[in-house]
Amino acid sequence: MAASQAFEEELSHFRNQAEGTTQIFGAFIGINNSISLWPEIRDAIQPAALFWNTIIAALQTSVFIGLARMFDHGSEHNIYRLIALAQGNPVKGEACPLSVSALRLRKRGNSPSDPEWLDNFIAGISDPSADDFRSLRKSVDERRRVYERKYRPIRHRHYAHSETIDKAELSKLFAQTNIGEIESLLDFVCALHEALIESFNNGSPLRLNVDDDGRNQRMRGLYARIQGDAQKTLDAIAAGTAHANREFCTPKR
Question: What is the pTM of this model?
Fold first, then answer.
């Protein structure tokens, strides 16, 4: 059970990072889109421009840190550690927490014997294969190469170590980034979490739940929700500002 507990704890860390980074990026996009698209919102927040620029910068920084925590080998709770714990290592005596035998033990709980329904529940479930884990690692490697090429340099040179980097070079680095690309990275990590938690809880095959465009429904729902919340918040600020201005401009009788 120690292997299952270690994996479950690591999976919880990973979920927090995947969903947290999705929320932060959604807030960043939601605020920027609202400011860009709606002049009344832009006018309403202009008196507090320094505050809003600080918020936007903090969100942007947090996105790069979140990606690094998942994709950097040097991170304590990185995606490769998660896969390693999921697979286990029999040579080192580390059991695979996604195996049928480990699932049976978890479903048995504190009972001295299997409950009557357990055999039917387990029937048809098989251990994940070495090919399953190779496929997951290949998918992780593909995303990590994207991160290393475009996002890791910004995280390391601009955010993490405060290197002296001129504005032209920094602008060039940011010009290589892409909103859709970050969304795809977040689709992947959320889909990976889903695949692992479903395998851990129910013995489901290790398959990424994405559509033909690589989108994960849970990620997209969370992403859209936080963007909507950002827009509603800014709409309310704009409406309140307009009301306050009308009140201020109304002559007393």
Answer: 0.90
